[in-house]
Design a protein that fits this description.
The chain has 407 residues and is an alpha+beta fold. It is 39% helix and 19% strand. The strands form four sheets. Strands 10-11-12-13-14 form a five-stranded mixed beta sheet. A four-stranded mixed beta sheet has the order 1-8-9-7. α6 crosses α8, α7 crosses α8 and α15 crosses α16. The longest helix has 16 residues.
Length: 407
């Protein structure tokens, strides 16, 4: 594909604005965000990563907040796990919420998992060795109806990691990965599993299964719409497609005119433009971004777009962390201008800023704009105040910004 002639050249600023618009940051936030706006964001993104870390908010709640503002948090819960959900759970990017209508697009991945491909090696080995046990678990779910992992907490445990799971947990994970079962709902954050054909709407279950190539082409189209302009690596990463398959599908979409080859100033690899991508002349966004937000989850792309190196430091020893434990970059206009290490002290009712750092593109308005966004987040989380309690070269200015906002 590197030999495909590019007919369009984009500046770095144009590419950044296209990417931001594709992710929903060119749109003004609605005054009273509700179901329609939430669904529009979810479908625009195509996938929302799930993560259990709750030091601020579990990450799947945050992309809609970043784009819509203070939407009702229970709206996501209804859409994902209510009586009539519009999402299903599967391995999309990582563990993900995905629009229901895209479920057939992942059946090739489920089939590969059944064949022991594209699945954690330990789980694949367990399936080979304990096939009868897994069949027994599946039969039990069919007989009993919805179950949780604790219903099958049997078998020896070892050191931390997947291998510490009970045999029942391993069986459930394999059945989930292969599409035999899915998440019907959640209790707290615990999955409640049921047979896929019982948990999902009949229209989804009965939808035809596309060929792997057809499904992968559509997933890349979704990725391209969600990113606006992207390299082959970006397009592959969005839904974690196999390398050879992604290359083949991108070439086919270029040939069909569904992707336009372009060059981008400062990018050292060819890029591809969604033919319908918006090209705004200016972006006036303001958003705190989850470290797992679609805009920044692929760190190479983040650095290309914004010139900012973002790394997740949750698993870094405390004394080696550069910016903090749960750090949210701050999008101001078209640039990432700051980052803050946040913690929700729910008992005290305070959103704690444990560190606040400037980025090179910070300006005189950064502290005030960030203070406003932090106060919006605190209210959305049901907290009463924001307190800067930590370090960082933006901490003092942020304190002043918060004080000014409260006078």
């Amino acid at each position: 594909m590197s030999g495909v002639a590019s007919s369009i050249g984009l500046s770095a600023a144009q590419a950044r604005r296209i990417a931001l618009a594709a992710q929903g940051f060119a749109d003004a936030r609605p005054v009273d965000p509700a179901t329609r706006q939430f669904r529009a964001v979810a479908r625009r993104l195509g996938v929302i990563q799930i993560d259990s870390v709750n030091v601020v908010s579990r990450t799947h709640y945050l992309p809609a907040f970043s784009r819509l503002g203070a939407y009702p948090r229970d709206l996501l819960e209804r859409e994902a796990w209510g009586p009539k959900p519009t999402f299903f759970e599967y391995w999309g990017h990582e563990a993900s919420l995905l629009p229901l209508e895209s479920q057939p697009l992942f059946r090739w991945r489920m089939a590969q998992a059944e064949a022991g491909q594209g699945i954690w090696g330990g789980i694949a080995r367990f399936a080979r060795e304990r096939g009868d046990y897994i069949e027994g678990i599946l039969s039990e779910i069919e007989r009993r109806g919805p179950v949780v992992g604790g219903d099958f907490a049997t078998g020896p445990r070892g050191a931390p990691g997947w291998w510490s799971w009970s045999d029942g947990k391993r069986a459930l994970e394999w059945l989930f990965w292969t599409g035999h079962i899915t998440t019907k709902t959640r209790r707290g954050f615990e999955r409640v599993y049921d047979l896929t054909h019982r948990a999902l709407p009949r229209a989804v279950v009965d939808a035809p299964t596309p060929s792997p190539a057809e499904a992968q082409r559509e997933l890349i189209r979704i990725s391209a719409r969600a990113m606006g302009v992207a390299t082959a690596a970006d397009l592959r990463d969005y839904f974690r497609l196999p390398l050879a398959d992604a290359r083949a599908r991108i070439g086919e979409l270029v040939e069909a005119g569904d992707l336009i080859p372009v060059t981008v100033e400062g990018w050292d690899k060819p890029a591809f433009l969604d033919p319908d991508a918006r090209r705004p002349r200016r972006i006036q966004a303001r958003a705190l971004l989850s470290p797992f937000d679609n805009l920044i989850w692929f760190r190479e792309r983040t650095e290309r777009l914004f010139g900012v190196r973002v790394r997740l430091e949750i698993y870094t020893p405390a004394h080696k962390r550069q910016h903090g434990y749960y750090v949210l970059p701050f999008l101001q206009g078209e640039r990432i201008t700051a980052r803050v290490d946040l913690k929700a002290d729910r008992k005290a009712g305070v959103l704690l800023v444990q560190a606040a750092w400037r980025e090179p593109d910070a300006d005189a308005e950064t502290a005030g704009a960030l203070a406003d966004e932090l106060q919006l987040m605190a209210g959305w989380l049901g907290l009463n105040a924001v307190a800067v309690v930590g370090k960082g070269d933006l901490a003092d200015a942020l304190k002043s910004g918060l004080a000014a906002a409260n006078t």
